[in-house]
Amino acid sequence: MDEPSDITQCRTGMAVVRKHREEIPAVVDELVISCNRDGCFDHIGPEPIPSREAAVDILKRIRRILYPGYFIPTRVDQVNVKYYFGQETTALFEALSEQITLAIRHDCIRHNQACTHCDERGQDAAIDFLRSMPELRNLLATDIRAAYAGDPAAKGYDEIIFSYPGLFAITVYRIAHRLHEQDVPMIPRIMTEYAHSHTGIDIHPGARIGESFFIDHGTGVVIGETTEIGKRVRLYQGVTLGALSLTREECESLRHQKRHPTIEDDVIIYSNATVLGGKTVLGSRSVIGGNVWLTESVPPDTEVFLKKPELVFGKKRR
Fold first, then answer.
1. Secondary structure string (H, E, C) spanning the chain
2. pLDDT tens, 65-112?
3. What is the maximal distance between C-alpha atoms in the chain?
4. pLDDT for res 199
5. Which of 53, 134, 159, 221 counts the highest number of beta carbons within 10 A?
6. Structural domains of the chain, ranges and CATH numbers in brackets
7. What is the crossing angle of helices 81-110 and 118-150, to 10°?
C-alpha cells in the first residue's frame, strides 16, 4: 500500500534537513582553521579576559549604591539602609575586584610584562573605588541639580534620575573615569560604550569634566578622550568635542597627546555645534550657537553664532 502523500513529503523534508546538518562539521573545521590565520580576531587560549556582561552588571550594582532606593524592587528606609549598603557594597567588591584582576592579567600577558601581582592589584583598585563612592555621590548630586536648573520641563529630581539619558551617560562616565584614573584597563571603555549604545551619548572615560555638568536631550553628543570641561557647562544634542582628522602616522604620534578642546566654566554649546582640536579653548561664559564649526579658540564672554540665513517665502502652487 502506498504511503499518504503528506508522509512522503515529511520524509523528503527530513532528508533535506539531514543533508544540510551533515555539512556542519566541515564548516566547523573551517572555522577552527580560520583561528590560526593572520588577520582574524579571536580569543582562544588559556589566558583570561574580562567579561562585558560582568562589567555591565557591575555598572548596575554601582548605580544602586549611588542612587539608593531608585533601582531596586524593594523599599530602603532607616530600618534596613545599613544592611542594604552592606550587602550591595560587599557584592560589588567581589565582582569588581575579580573583573579588574582579569583585565590587569590580560594586559600583562598580552604585553609580556613581568608579574605585577594581579590579584592584589585588583583588590586594591576595587577597595579604592569603593572609598571614592561618597565623593562620586556628591559630584553626581551637582549634575542632577544642574539638570533641574537647566531644564524647565523637569518636574523633579526623581524624574531626572529615573529617565534622563544625559544623567545616565554622565553617571556611567563618572564611574568609568574614576576607574580610568586608577589605570584599570579595558573595563572603563566597556562601560562608557554600553552607555553610548543605550543613549547615543559618547563620552570617553579619559575626558575630564567638572561639576554641575548638564547634557540636554543628548542624542549624538561626542566628547573625546582628552577633552577638558570646566564647571557648570551645558551641552545640547549633537554637540561634538572632537579631534581634527589625522593621517595614520599622525594618529600614532599623537596617541598620548591632547587632541580635543578645552571648555572653560559656564559655557553653553547649542545643538549640532562642532568644536575640534587640542589647542582650541572656549573661554568662560561663552555661548556657542547651533551648527557652528570651530577649530580656533574663543575668548571669555563671547557669543559665536552663524549669520541668520535668508528665508524665501512663495505662494504654494496647486
1. CCCCHHHHHHHHHHHHHHHHHCCHHHHHHHHHHHCCCCCCCCCCCCCCCCCHHHHHHHHHHHHHHHCCCCCCCCCCCCCCHHHHHHHHHHHHHHHHHHHHHHHHHHHHHHCCCCCCCHHHHHHHHHHHHHHHHHHHHHHHHHHHHHHHHHCCCCCCHHHHHHHCHHHHHHHHHHHHHHHHHCCCCCHHHHHHHHHHHHHCCEECCCCEECCCCEEECCCCCEECCCCEECCCCEEECCCEEECCCCCHHHHHHCCCCCCCCEECCCCEECCCCEEECCCCEECCCCEECCCCEECCCECCCCEECCCCCCCCCCCCCC
2. 999 999 998 899 999 999 999 999 999 999 999 999 999 888 776 767
3. 96
4. 97
5. 221
6. 49-201 (1.10.3130.10), 207-307 (2.160.10.10)
7. 120
Q: Are 165 and 199 in contact (CB under 8 A)?
A: yes
pLDDT, position 190:
97
Give first-to-last CA distance, the chain, whole Å: 74
Give the model's confidence band at 302: pLDDT under 50 very low, under 70 low, under 90 confident, else very high: very high
| Confidence tier at 3 by pLDDT (50, 70, 90) | low
pLDDT for residue 119: 85
- What pTM, to 2 d.p., does this model score? 0.88
